[in-house]
Amino acid sequence: MPLEELHIQSVRCIEALSLTANSRWNWLVGANGAGKSSVLEALHILGTGQTWRHSPRYVQRDGAGEYLVSARLSDHFLALRRRGEEREIRYDGEPLVSAWMLLDVLPLQSLHDDNSHFVAGTAEDRRRVLDWGIYYADRYYGMVFRQYRRALQQRNAWLKSGQGRQPWDDAVIAAGEEIQQRRQVHLAAVLPEVIALWERWSGAVFGLSLHLHSGWKEGLSLGDCLRRDQEQDREMGYTHSGPHRANLMFRVHGKAALDILSRGQLRVLGLAYRLAQVQILKQAGLPLPIILIDDFAAELDASARDWWVKELDLLGVQVFAAVTAAGQIPAAVSGSHFCLAAGQLEKETAS
Ligand SMILES: Nc1ncnc2c1ncn2[C@@H]1O[C@H](COP(=O)(O)OP(=O)(O)OP(=O)(O)O)[C@@H](O)[C@H]1O
């Protein structure tokens, strides 16, 4: 369901902005500080309920009492309003009780700083990206994930208080092992797609392998680890083993990708991984996400940019991408150009 119209009020440097979107390519063009990322972040907030910042407070335009983002999606209308700690999300006028429901309404894949460099980022960055692909492909995963998070919070609260009988291990183990198993299945499907994408870009054979460390000691079950480390966990008030500590590692010919690849190649690998996740959704006949790309041209040479737009074009996704100059947009794609300055839409052109 493509996004047709976007309206933003009081988000960062934007006072009020409305645009009519192209069903495929939407290029946000402007100098540093023009408001491109603010448009992308507004869309991200609308599709996930979450910001890219440490706190939603930083999203609200200075001096405004609230912010509002809304969109028309074919015949539907989605709106999110935030005033202080209160957030209200409405879909066709009806309140959405949970931001999780946005997964169905406005699927998004956001490529911005940390997650387009996620191969070189933290284990948490990589877990977030890994889990993104599974949430959208497998709704049961989202349910198991929430069960795990709840059980883990309760176990940690018990570890800190030291009160009563320890009742949470079974729930942590059942959901934790299910998460690990589903992550492995997802990675087995993603790997050949990533390799094929890379090889189309480079023209050379790519000896990539993906290794998922489960988050608990190899050779032991999660239950064994929780029992073994219970005293240590109690002392620290924290559960040390589980899929919340998992790490996804990228190796090229058996060596850490981080030690082998250049910055630009690491970004291409991160992008190939994200594209592969969308390909899997497409193969399964699931709705495709809108792709948000901040700083499209960063670290990519012209051939990598051409490769990327060609692959996105083949997928048939709707894209919103930020560039600092129109010259960074590959000639191969047409679409709409939105020229921004000081948080305002100055010009809208179709190419
Ligand atoms: N809460 C706020 N209220 C008003 N202005 C803000 C707020 N937060 C950030 N800004 C301003 O918004 C501008 C940043 O906009 P944005 O990050 O969207 O720019 P950009 O076009 O993506 O730039 P770049 O190309 O450098 O990434 C900055 O000038 C910043 O000072």
UniProtKB/TrEMBL annotation:
<dbReference type="GO" id="GO:0006260">
    <property type="term" value="P:DNA replication"/>
</dbReference>
<dbReference type="InterPro" id="IPR027417">
    <property type="entry name" value="P-loop_NTPase"/>
</dbReference>
<feature type="domain" description="RecF/RecN/SMC N-terminal">
    <location>
        <begin position="3"/>
        <end position="319"/>
    </location>
</feature>
<dbReference type="GO" id="GO:0000731">
    <property type="term" value="P:DNA synthesis involved in DNA repair"/>
</dbReference>
<keyword id="KW-0742">SOS response</keyword>
<dbReference type="GO" id="GO:0003697">
    <property type="term" value="F:single-stranded DNA binding"/>
</dbReference>
<dbReference type="InterPro" id="IPR001238">
    <property type="entry name" value="DNA-binding_RecF"/>
</dbReference>
<dbReference type="InterPro" id="IPR042174">
    <property type="entry name" value="RecF_2"/>
</dbReference>
<keyword id="KW-0547">Nucleotide-binding</keyword>
<dbReference type="InterPro" id="IPR003395">
    <property type="entry name" value="RecF/RecN/SMC_N"/>
</dbReference>
<dbReference type="Pfam" id="PF02463">
    <property type="entry name" value="SMC_N"/>
</dbReference>
<comment type="function">
    <text>The RecF protein is involved in DNA metabolism; it is required for DNA replication and normal SOS inducibility. RecF binds preferentially to single-stranded, linear DNA. It also seems to bind ATP.</text>
</comment>
<keyword id="KW-0227">DNA damage</keyword>
<dbReference type="GO" id="GO:0006302">
    <property type="term" value="P:double-strand break repair"/>
</dbReference>
<protein>
    <recommendedName>
        <fullName>DNA replication and repair protein RecF</fullName>
    </recommendedName>
</protein>
<feature type="binding site">
    <location>
        <begin position="30"/>
        <end position="37"/>
    </location>
    <ligand>
        <name>ATP</name>
    </ligand>
</feature>
<dbReference type="GO" id="GO:0005524">
    <property type="term" value="F:ATP binding"/>
</dbReference>
<keyword id="KW-0235">DNA replication</keyword>
<keyword id="KW-0963">Cytoplasm</keyword>
<dbReference type="GO" id="GO:0009432">
    <property type="term" value="P:SOS response"/>
</dbReference>
<dbReference type="GO" id="GO:0005737">
    <property type="term" value="C:cytoplasm"/>
</dbReference>
<comment type="similarity">
    <text>Belongs to the RecF family.</text>
</comment>
<keyword id="KW-0238">DNA-binding</keyword>
<keyword id="KW-0067">ATP-binding</keyword>
<keyword id="KW-0234">DNA repair</keyword>
